[in-house]
Amino acid sequence: MANETILVTGATGQVGRRLVPKLLNWREPGDEIRVLVRSAEAAERFAALGARTVVGDLTDAADRKRALDGAALVVNSAATFRGEGVTAADMYAVNRDAAVALARESAQAGVRRFVQVSTNLVYGPGVGRPAREDDELRASGTSEAEQRSAYPVSKREAEEQLRELSAQSGLDIVALRLSFVYGEGDPHIENILARFDYGLRAAHEVLAMVHHADVAQGVHRALRATRSGASYTAYNISGDGASTIFELFDLVGRQLDLDAAAGKSVEDPWFGIPDTTRAYRDLGFRPIYPTAKTAWRDGAL
User: Fold this and answer.
1) Which end of the chain has less Cβ packing within 10 Å, N or C?
2) Is residue 260 part of a domain?
3) Does the residue 297 lie in any domain?
4) Distance CA 205, CA 228 (A)
């Protein structure tokens, strides 16, 4: 459909700042890419790229209403993750409460499709095989004050509430469960390696990963896919092969202490490993960068 407004939230985050320029390049004639950002400076940057901007906060109902005015499609890529000064309450406020409120208001505003950018961490512990979209979501934590578990649990609870909302309101909701996101200068690999205790992780432990180019591809395909009837559908978005901890250290030019890591076992070899069959079948998704090594080879890290 032409002449549609696509609202993107979280445009200044690691995913959003790489996603928006691609959506601008891929838009249909007459389409508008609108972003909700929190500062005038950010609005100026995105306006220079060709996006329409709304300055406001996702957690504010009036700002959400202004951003949704006339929108046909919504991509909610906003998320709050662990970081300096970030509390568990912050993560629940953005990742769950604001996401669900935005979807509810999208249904009321006549939005045609709502794409929720989620995470494969919602699955929780492995089940002895790659996780499939119809598996139970088992990410858990002791309380909302538990910062370490707040991100996956807030994302899980958001999905559970969005599923209920879709059934009640008829809003077509697509949840994209991303693997570990990297590429295009994102410091995510360096950051996670810095959190690994040297020698306390097995060198052969694996991490399923998805490049920013493939995140954007997944979002674009989710927006444009022909679907029969409104429903809630989740898709795993990931590369084709997981990378070992050793490979990740090697890719960024760092040394893993192999002597200290020797003999360490992997407690849950299936944790975070997704099955992408549904995305391949329904969306035509094909990773541009099947592995992190491929991205390194092409200078796309």
Assistant:
1) N
2) no
3) no
4) 40
